[in-house]
Amino acid sequence: MSEIEKVAKIFPCSQSEALAQAIAHSYGIPLGKINRLNFSDGEFQPSFEESVRGTRVFIIGSTNPNSDNLMEMLLMLDAAKRSSARHITAVMPYFGWARQDRKDKPRVPIAAKMIAKMLETAGATRIITMDLHADQIQGFFEKPVDHLYASTIFLPYLKGLQLDNLTVASPDMGGSKRAYAYSKFLESDVVICYKQRAKANVISHMELIGDVTGKNVVLVDDLVDTAGTLTHAANLMIERGAKSVRAVCTHPVLSGNAYEKLENSKLEELIVTDSIPLRQQSAKIKVVSSAALFADVMKAVHHNESISSKFLM
């Protein structure tokens, strides 16, 4: 039996088990058997409960903090390598620690680069991820990286809303490229928020560049953490005459009191993927599944087929 004819195997990290189950179902194969032994001091040991020798292994897990999520991915990659898997793909719907992608002041680490090296050292021969915080993080890897865009699942949803006078907005200057890409497909105007921070996660001032009077606004961003920027921008746009404001954010980190901020804001809807499990439910949050996207790309990778049709941006 040739390598391509062999059935690939999919294994979940514990944090992403629900998404991994959905991906495996869409792919058409069951999840592989895995066990996790927990020690009383917090140490843990994952183990494959079936042979992976000579196979292509997909290990699915987002690496958002706490660090156990990253550690579990690294341990599973190492276990697959030591079990003689032929190809080992780290499927990371959310690549955590990516905001530290450069030295923005003296004497700080470049965490994204360090983690890229750790993943490769642990055994990853390929990376599949979605909406990196910065596109250039792909260059931190020496192995192939398939960088998917959630726009392929968000855009059909947004078009289905049939909003009139639609305007796409970026909550900061850094996201303007993403906003313009969405506006191209939605044939809409673009506005941009300019913000200044007093410190990390604290906005001291925000100004709006563009007119939103009478518009249905869609804010787009790669992630929502404390929801401070997002809710501040939504409230500002309603004050400036916007008809409605909703947001599209790929990764729902939603730390601290983010849920409370969302509930108390003028934001009508927050649309996210299932790259990170929600800590709690909210009537304002709509989750669209990324399972079919990942399953299609994984199947194409396994059969050495093109995945270019999956890139809308």
Mind sketching the topology for me?
Blueprint: E1 9-12, H1 17-27, E2 34-38, E3 44-48, E4 56-60, H2 68-82, E5 87-92, H3 111-122, E6 126-130, E7 145-148, H4 151-161, E8 166-170, H5 176-186, E9 189-199, E10 202-209, E11 216-224, H6 228-239, E12 244-252, H7 258-263, E13 269-273, E14 285-288, H8 291-302
Parallel strand pairs: 1-4, 4-5, 5-6, 6-7, 8-9, 8-11, 11-12, 12-13, 13-14
Antiparallel strand pairs: 2-3, 9-10
How would you describe this structure to a colleague?
- This protein has eight helices and 14 strands.
- The chain has 313 residues and is an alpha/beta fold.
- The protein has two domains: 9-148 and 291-310, 3-Layer(aba) Sandwich (Rossmann fold), CATH 3.40.50.2020; 151-288, 3-Layer(aba) Sandwich (Rossmann fold).
- Helix 1 (17-27) packs across helix 8 and helix 2 packs parallel to helix 3 (111-122).
- The chain is globular, with a radius of gyration of 20 Å.
